[in-house]
Amino acid sequence: MSAGSVFFEPHVSLSRNEKFTMVREGSLGFALALALGFAASFIGKHVKGLDPLVAAVVLGMAASLAINAREKVYFKLLPGIILAQSIFIPIGIALYGKNLEIKVMLASNPWIFLQVIGITALTFVFMFWLGKLFGFNERMRYLLGFGSAICGASAIAIASPILECEPNDTATGLVDNTIAAVISMYLLATFVLPHVLPRDYAAAAGALLHQTGFVKMALSGGAKSLLEFGVVVKSLRVVLLVLAIPTVSYLIRKRIYVPWYLVLFVVVAFIFSYVPMPTAFSKGVTTFYEICFSAALASIGMNANILHVFKRLFKPLVLVMLVFVLDLGVWWLTRGLIHY
Amino acid sequence: MTVKTVGYEDLMTAIVKKQISVIGSERAVLFARKVPQITVSNDGTVVGGNKAALSALCQQYMSVASGVAKMLMKSAVAPLLNGSPLDLPDELR
After folding, report:
1. Residue at B27 is within a domain
2. Which residues on chain A are in Cβ contact (under 8 Å) with B74?
3. What CA–CA distance (Å, rounded) separates A31 from A9?
4. B86 in a domain, yes or no?
5. How high is the ipTM of this complex?
């Protein structure tokens, strides 16, 4: 590894005038992104199973139809759309650390954690090699890998700026991830649930389903302890973000890239894991990061082309489902080794 | 181990790729292709050009989002400039 191969994002200094120009030019687009973020967060709370991030990107793409109809309007809004991404993505990622349950991870059965690590690593490998056969570029393969291996929509939102994916790819990844989660939940309920013990099923849901919301939906009909167990298994996958981001970043850039907000993400995780927080404050932080993330995703959606995204949803969806089936096979083969 | 010297091509490639990740390849490449003396591939790789071309490329992106574009471009080239003696145009200072 050469000198300087580990780096933090350098600080970019702007003069007071430049900052003022940025705020003046960006206010309109920024306000629009924020409004869409609020709307997505609201929709996400009222539509069962719909992640607010997915709602945000779809709302952003819908807004882009109106914005792009007149080039003058698009260019008037563009500075603010970019500004919203630059500000909200780091805030959203840093505060997402709240979901990293370090205490839970340390208290979990090491064999389950090992199984989760194995499935996560294999998901990236399957996605990388099969994605190559499907003709996807390297960044898209990793993006879909994050969505399937780690924590669905949130992982895609976090990985997208680090992988520097195109808005169309990010939007495709988010929509496909949600469709895949719905299909996978159905497959697990139909083909796995009748053949395994309830706790094994909870472990499968936590280890394999793409989004935490779907893990909760899959286990909502059973005992509360099973739901909690499934979410714990899922949270073990979220922890792996901390390893997956620098690793994938190294594979792409040949340098270990540690964005400053990933450091904050870990700091926030430790604070929320070990410092007692009033429930109201914790809920407030969740709402705040959800709106930040949603506003960022809405701004990504506004730079994506909705027709382009919906036209090419099928191929990545097939890939994601294929990898899910392979992961299910790995889980099935290794479940006998673990006492859940 | 040989150390590759950073050139204007590398800086322009980093800028175009950063813009692709924010505004999409269609628009980002379209703007970049308006700059004379350089060839831009669909993935954002730039071939050719000098300090004047780099300056023209920055102006292209700043014509639509001046302040934010400048911030993005500076952050795109910053990792490449560590200790580099390359003379930068005013847009990136």
Report:
1. yes
2. 12, 14
3. 27
4. no
5. 0.83
CB contact under 8 A, B21 and A21: no
In the A/B pair of chains, how many CB contacts fall below 8 A? 80
Q: Whole-angstrom Cα distance, residue A326 to residue A71? A: 45
Across the interface, whether the CB atoms of A303 and B24 are under 8 A apart is answered yes
B60 falls within a domain: yes
Query: Alpha helix (H) ranges present in chain A?
Result: 16-46, 52-68, 71-96, 102-107, 110-134, 138-146, 152-163, 167-187, 198-208, 212-219, 224-239, 241-253, 260-274, 279-302, 306-311, 314-335
- Supply the pLDDT for residue B70: 86
Q: Could you say which residues of chain A have pLDDT below 70?
A: 1-13
Q: Which two tokens stand for residue A238?
A: 């979220």
pLDDT tens-digit readout, A38-51: 999 999 989 887 88
Domain count, chain B: 1
Domain carrying residue B38: 8-74
Query: Mean pLDDT, chain A, as a whole number?
Result: 90
Facing A78 at nearest CB: one of B21, B64, B75: B64
Contact between A25 and B66 using a beta-carbon 8 Å cutoff: yes
